[in-house]
Amino acid sequence: YSSPSSSVQSELRITTIKQEPYTISKGTQLEGFCMDLLSEVAKKLGFKYRVQLVKDGSYGRQDDNGNWNGMIGEVVRGEADLAIAPLTLTAAREKAVGMTKPFMQTGISILLRKDISEGSGFFDFLTPFTAETWVGILIAYLGTAASIFIVARISPCEWSQPQSEQNRFSFLHSLWYTAGALTLQGAGPHPKALSGRVICCSWWFFTVVLLACYFSNLSSSKSSESAQLMVKGFEDLANQDTIEYGCLAGSSTLAFFKNSNNPVYRRIYEHMERTKSFVSSMDEGVRRAKEGNFAFIGESVSLDLAVARHCELVRAHEVVGMRGYSIAAAFGSPLIKNLSVAILQLSEAGELAYLRSKWWASSCIADRTKSSPVQLHSLKGMFLVLSLGLGLGALLAVLELTSKSRRGAVEQRKSCCTVLTEELSLRLRTSNASRPQENVDKDKEKA
Predict the structure, then answer these.
(1) 383 by DSSP, 3-state: which?
(2) What is the model's pLDDT at position 226?
(3) Domain assignment of residue 237, yes or no
(4) Exposed site from 111, 253, 329, 366, fewest CB < 10 Å?
(5) Are the C-beta atoms of residues 89 and 99 closer than 8 Å to each other?
(6) 153 and 112 within one domain
(7) Are residues 330 and 301 in the same domain?
């Protein structure tokens, strides 16, 4: 591009407007995204500048007589050489002044409070735990039921006479008993043997901690869902009448909806005109969105800033009407080409992205309105305690049976291993044990 000395004056008059975070006051100085951008561009093009705030506090709108106000008007009248601010690149402005390549892309989106931006699903009650955690809980449940079933058969304290007595813990009853403990309801009869009680205590401890984690996470994930309305985009907004919505009066956002042929956008515009739900400033739109029952329609980068500053707000994912923010100069000015090249160089070097992250940094420490699902590794201590309990219960059952086998071996004058093998074989293959308890009651009645 042409050398700076041939196309740039010694000191340029820059007009801007106060808007966070583009231009903000700090003492007697101005700072912000646009001020940093201006400094970088001035370094590349080698010019000095003097910044002044626009006199009428407007961006630039054309009246019925064709006259421009705001920053655009000052550039048109020669009161300023450049206007650097979040000036939207539009056809009308391009006809009146020269506009550079956009230094930032934006669009139109929706700002809502978090409690009306997300709806509930049918299976939201499963969200406190991840899928892996639910699988782990199912395996723990089946493993505990199987352990109770096996220990109740092995332990002589639980089942003293396999030949004549009915085992109270069939596999189905073991499943029912374990499920009852999981829901804190209980399902008798309870184990009599120490081995079975150790397993049950381990399972009870596991379920108490598990339920505490579940309800704690469920309550925190549901606390923000005071309204069940789902608003993900403009079509959802147009198809409901529960919450009010509006945009900045006289803005390019309003012009977009007014001039659109899209039926959804036309309905939104007609609704705003009918209800006169316009706001006079960005701050008012953010305030009404924070109060609830109001969706503020505005430019996405401005809404992103509001989300970064106010943790209870969220921006809808849908962005329409993409446009850019540009620097304005006098029509036909030789500055336009050089400024556009400088902006492209800053973009390619990652400087614009850095400035965006610097001035749009979120002040939200943590999002406490919705907690993340509990991961399986977070509950590894619970599963370890349960596993130790199951293992200890099984060991105690074997010791109980071994003790009885040793006494039987002395009485029968057989080796302990032989008696133990016979006991295990009898207890694990006796068909009587698999009959439900009701059959035993019927047999007693018949007798």
Answers:
(1) helix
(2) 39
(3) yes
(4) 366
(5) yes
(6) no
(7) no
Domain interval for residue 263: 107-118+228-323
Asked whether residue 113 is marked as a ligand-binding residue, the answer is: no
The domain that holds 208 is classified in CATH as: 1.10.287
The count of structural domains within the chain is 3
Q: Is 299 annotated as a binding residue?
A: yes
Q: Is residue 432 part of a domain?
A: no
Q: How far apart are CA 104 and CA 88, in angstroms?
A: 10
The sign of the dihedral angle between the CA atoms of 262, 266, 269, 271 is negative
Same domain? 54 vs 192: no
The annotation status of 86 as a binding-site residue, yes or no, is yes
Asked whether residue 199 falls in the same domain as residue 282, the answer is no
Asked whether residue 143 falls in the same domain as residue 184, the answer is yes
**Distance in angstroms (rounded) separating the CA atoms of residues 341 and 115:** 44
Tell me: is residue 88 an annotated ligand-binding position. Answer: yes
Which residues pair with residue 68 across a beta bridge?
62
Same domain, 147 and 207: yes
Cα separation of 241 and 177, whole Å?
50
Residue 120's identity, in one-letter code, is: S
Is there a single domain that holds both residue 158 and residue 288?
no
Buried b / exposed e over 413-445, threshold 16 CB at 10 Å, is eeeeeebbeebeeebeebeebeeeeeeeeeeee
Q: What is the mean pLDDT of residues 267-296?
A: 89
- Supply the DSSP string of 343-380, one letter for each residue: HHHHHHTTHHHHHHHHHT----S---SSPPPBPGGGGH
Give the whole-angstrom CA distance, residue 423 versus residue 155: 10
pTM above 0.90, yes or no: no
pLDDT tens digit string along 197-238?
899 999 999 999 998 888 888 776 655 443 334 678 898 888
Q: What is the pLDDT of residues 162-176, one digit of tens each?
A: 767 777 888 888 888
Residue 182's pLDDT band, with cuts at 50, 70 and 90, is confident
440 pLDDT exceeds 90?
no
